[in-house]
Amino acid sequence: MRWVLLLAAAMMAFGCDDGAPTDAGVDASVVDGGGDDAGPDGGPMGEEIALPGLDGPVEVVIDDRGMPHIYASTVHDLMVVEGYLMSRDRFAQMELIRRNVLGTLAEVLYNADPSVLGDDRDSRFLGFMRQGRAIYESLPADDETRLAAEAFVEGVNHYIDQVLDTDEYLPPMGLELLNIVRASPNFGHWDPADVFAIARFQSFNLSYDAGADISRTAALAGVRAAFDPTSLDERIASRAGVYADFWSERQARDVYTRPDFNDGSTTALLPPIRRPLPPEAARLPTIAQLNGAEAFYARLDQNPLFRRDPHMGSNSWVVSGEHTASGQPILSNDPHLSLISPGVWWYVHLNTQRMGGDIDAQGVAFAALPGVVLGYNRDLAWSATTTGYDVTDVYDEEVTFRNAGTPSEPDWVPVSVLFEGGQVDLDTIDESITVFGGDDVTVVLYDVPHHGPIIPDTIVTPDVVDPPTDSTATGRALSVRYTGHEVSNELAFFVGLLTSESVDEAFAAQDNFVVGAQNFSFASRAGDIAWSTQSRIPQRQAAACSFNIESNGTVTGISPLYVLPGNGGFEWESDLADPFIPHDVNPARGYIATANQANVPVTRDGNPCNDAHYIGGDFAVGYRMGRIVERLDEATAAGGITTDDMIALQAETRSSLGETMRDPIVAAIDHALGDATDDPALLAVVTAAGGDGMTALTDARTRLMAWTLETPHGVGATDAGEIADSVATTIFNATITRLSGLAFQDEADLIGRRPGSSQTARMLEWALADAETQRTMPLYTYRDSYLTVTDWNDTVLWDDISTDAVIETRDERVVSAVLAAMAWLETELGADADQWRWGRLHAVRFSQIVPPVGDPGIVSIPPVGSEEFPIGFPRHGDYGAVDVGNYSMWGGERFTHGSGASQRLVVEMTPDGPRPFNALPGGQSEDIESPYHDDEAELWRRNEQPALYFDDADVEAHAEAELSFVPG
Q1: From its phi and psi, is residue 596 left (phi > 0), alpha (psi between -120 and 50) or beta?
Q2: Residue 267: what pLDDT?
């Protein structure tokens, strides 16, 4: 989204509004955080704030990390004050999230940037406002989740009252947005239904994958069009299996959370089930439908809130006390989300126990949502990673249209869809959008009753010449069915966790977590460790899961990972029964680990559809999980695990790709430096490179062979070993990101798209180290008639299909990539290779999402234009590292990353309660003048995570400000 230009224009357009309401009903105004007695948080020491509606006094201690510890006598007061304090730290971010989610940006910003109306249209299609309202209204008045949301919104609205009641200019804390939106007559209070809409958006963000289904279908269509297995051109026919290689569901590392899960959820260790192929399974949508759908989801990606970083993931593990030094379990969690400023999470400690209640919980909350999402109470700690379960399907609908226009100017209106031999009328949804500075707009959406909303961009109207008025004809469209379109209350799970005392109680609370399937792991003070993925997992009719990879690598049948025919026979029949949903309690191996990979081995053979139950197939390829399992196996065998050990594992950066690819690359260099006459293509490259090229290859070989596979950023390093590893990391990654283009760009051009970076990394690894398993091994006729080396046993993908005069081989492609990398690094980083430090290329900046006016980069961490960190904080790790910092595997000129550990939580559950450690990528406050704006970022970038304060004595010892809230 165009926020920098938008906000600057809006400030000029609106200026100040002197007509705002003046009676806010809140005695203390702390919007500016001023006062002569201000503490380090910007709030006065001992400040008293009167809030209407409180049941009693509430005490708050702000510690030296900026975390508020809220002590109240009732849950209502706890949530009111949480909403108020979160708003004081993050309101600009919260309001931006809310308006994006609800589709109400145009209410306050259209006059500055009319393009926000398009964002609102897209949000209305996604339907969070409708879903939030439906969930809220489904709850009885005394439901504890409803009451918590209402109280939280009370607190937010008290803060809004203060904003409306001040004429003072707000400080540069990202809140310039308030000076803009409050100028609109449409600016006002939050509604409790907004909380449920935002909660549903968060579930959507972690589970909705319609865009992936569409992209995968488009890739399959591209492969089928480009590489006909019956082609007489052996170069074409031998690549017919490229889809099964590029877009395989098989993991790069054969590791799972519970490989022996035997509750019936998988028969992956048994002979696969072959399902009958339905007659229409191979039907694919039209190019126009696919292009429209991809354009829609690409447009969503332009919005910072909806953008899906393809490199995201998460890590979590919990170790049994039988393997720890203390004898108590330790839980670790670093969810990988977009690294933004202000950050995703906000620290909070909620306590009613001190005043006789049941709650004593601490952790992180999503900005704009109440409670604690990830954290711990006195008896239980919990963490989460995404499962990748398939809970979204896209359907290709045969739509009947009616011409509401004239024969010369037809106006085709969708009326019904074909389903199970009959016509089903479409439901119409009219969404009204208020436009500040323009005419209000009504958006008409169409909903397939048995599937879901039609993606507007995918409507293909009938191609009929001069159709009579009111005549009907057939067209096409894509609809989306998603578990999140139905009413459920995930917030109830997190409310339940606040007081859960055991794994059993946590599991009971998790029954409420229907949408957004997650790997939730638990550690209890009683010593139990557990993991559950409880959620709704649709089970489809057999025809929807008839996918198969034939011996030549071509795909037959279909699966829910692709666009399904919408005319019946491919429907959701039921939900996976609880006993078959993957879970574990106190496993024999002494730990539970998840990292977004398939948590049970349903994709071991590359086919997620031939098991007893289908749960999905779009999982992480397993690089992080492979290393985590390796380290945990070693640690549990040795015993005596400490929290320091778990913190070190979160900082693990050994190169998984280097382990498998370094040696084949060096072998290719050796071939070039030796006798290359047996490979004409390689010989030509060696000859052209000359003496300087051979010197560069020799230097690369020496550095790669000395590499320990550790990947330090090396910026500012003085240790010779650290510098050597850093430079080798640079050479290796500059090489493989060029090799991907040299090897696969020709096929990608013909297909019309590239595989994603994780798929590309896996394919490079397979091609270099495991070519025999690929479906693009050359045919014998290809070898005999087209190759001079007849015993060549590599995938044909090494050969550039666009060149007729030469057959490119693996060693030629590898050596060409090394030479290109060395030349680019010399140009980019200088002639002294010892200065090719990895951190000069591999860096991260926490990018602002609510920029203040005037400086487009001032809220980012580090700020744009920083002399010390010109491209961001230098970072260790390379693609697939546990301490994730992934980048595009294509191009080789940009290695910065935008997602990573959104927290680094480690908590030991001692007999006295939790002993937590954490660091956030940023800080508590969006105010750039606050000491809590970027203090956590300094810890995060150094992989430091000091202890947090949970017990009263620790909190008081580290108090930096105290606030008292009283009824008023």
Answers
A1: left
A2: 43
- Residues making up the chain, counted from first to last: 968
CB contact set of 226 (below 8 Å; sequence gap of 6+): 236, 239, 747, 750, 751, 752
d(CA 334, CA 552): 41
In this prediction, residue 279 carries a pLDDT of 42
What is the spatial distance between Cα 319 and Cα 636, in angstroms, rounded to a whole number?
8
Q: Which amino acid is at 428?
A: T
161: helix, strand or coil: helix
CATH of domain 392-485: 2.30.120.10
62 pairs with which residues across the strands? 68, 961
CA distance readout (Å), 801 to 239, 296, 520: 10, 32, 47
The dihedrals phi and psi of 517, each to the nearest 5 degrees, come to: -35, 125
β-sheet bridge partners, residue 908:
330, 915
Q: Which of 86, 91, 46, 95 is nearest to 66 (CA)?
A: 86
339 phi and psi angles, rounded to 5 deg: -95, 100
User: What is the pLDDT at residue 41?
Assistant: 43
Q: What is the pLDDT of residue 26?
A: 46
Q: How high is the pLDDT of residue 177?
A: 62
CA-to-CA dists, residue 960 to 3, 42, 65, 66, 955, angstroms: 34, 10, 9, 8, 10
Give the DSSP per-residue string, 372-430: -SEEEESSEEEEEEE-----EEEEEEEEEEEE-S-SSS--EEEEEEEETTEEEEPEEEE
What whole-number distance in Å separates Cα of residue 31 and Cα of residue 28? 9
The pLDDT of residue 395 is 98
Give 10-residue mean pLDDT values along the chain (968 residues).
36 31 38 40 71 98 98 99 97 93 94 91 97 98 98 97 72 58 85 99 95 96 95 90 94 95 50 45 81 94 75 88 98 95 96 98 98 99 97 98 97 98 98 95 98 97 97 98 98 98 98 96 98 97 92 89 97 95 97 97 93 94 98 98 98 97 98 95 97 98 99 98 99 98 98 96 94 71 48 81 89 98 98 98 91 69 93 97 95 92 98 98 91 96 98 97 97
**What's 436's DSSP letter?**
T
What's 129-151 look like in SS3?
HHHHHHHHHHCCCCCHHHHHHHH
**Angle at alpha carbon of residue 667, lines to 666 and 668, rounded to 5°:** 90
* CA gyration radius, the chain: 29
- Where helices occur in 707-809 by DSSP H, the ranges are 720-751, 757-769, 780-786
Query: Token pair of 947, please?
Result: 């202890």
- Mention every residue, 6+ apart, whose C-beta is less than 8 A from residue 296: 122, 455, 456, 457, 458
Domain boundaries, the chain: 392-485, 656-839
Nearest to 187 by CA among 436, 437, 439, 440: 436
DSSP notation for 605-619: TS-TTSSSS---S--
CB 729 within 8 A of CB 653: no
Chain-centre distance for alpha carbon 656: 21
